Amino acid sequence: MTTSTLKPAKGAGARKSTLGSVAKAASTLLIKTGGSSHRGKALAIPILSKTMKALAGQPAQMGVLLETYGAAIEKSRLTGQLVRIIVDVDPRGKSKFKEVEVTPAPTPDPITGESKDNLQEALEAARGRGRARIADILSDGDMLSADEFARLIGTSRVTVNAKRQSHQVLGLEGAKRGFRFPEWQVDAEGKPFASLPALFDRLGGNPWAVYRLLVQHHPELNGQTGREALARGRSAEVIEVAESVLRAAS
Length: 250
Hints:
By secondary structure, the protein is α+β, with helices and mostly antiparallel strands. It is 42% helix and 16% strand.
């Protein structure tokens, strides 16, 4: 059985911290064992003087704590799991040691090497950033409601939604604001870009993929955005860019 003894430390070495400054500690916790295989051996742990004063009247509880800690180490080695020790200390210094709990260790993802818990947190954070970005985009002044867009192109809300479903107009959906329609998808004659159905076809019918293509600058279009090129009648070139995006993704 392991026993613990409180013993003053000797020598100036015990007074130096790892930073080389003079520490306020001048005590050593001496741990002895009564086991036959380690008889005569002891473990000396330097501690602060104030810690020594706090522990001086608790040798029995210190022994229980060390035994519990040692058992946790051994159990973790045997099971390969995380082990938790819970210690409750009251104002009088009395302690209660709850049973050692075994909890599953985080399983690393085979690709990223991160634990599944960390990976899930990262994915959720990315989703949160994506939702916030969508909300920002849909709140821009050039994003119109179905009624506003219907008035812009001289038709009804019902017709606008029908055109959205048939990919004749670009409508973007948000979590709270419903569908929003970019004002800039209308040409000089007040009609939606005629090449929108072809772009939807090339990009798998994904409205956000079409949106990205139209707002991003492309070297193939001499640095113009997709919507700028469409407004200048370069529909065939924009469709070629969409086809190159599709090839790159496949």
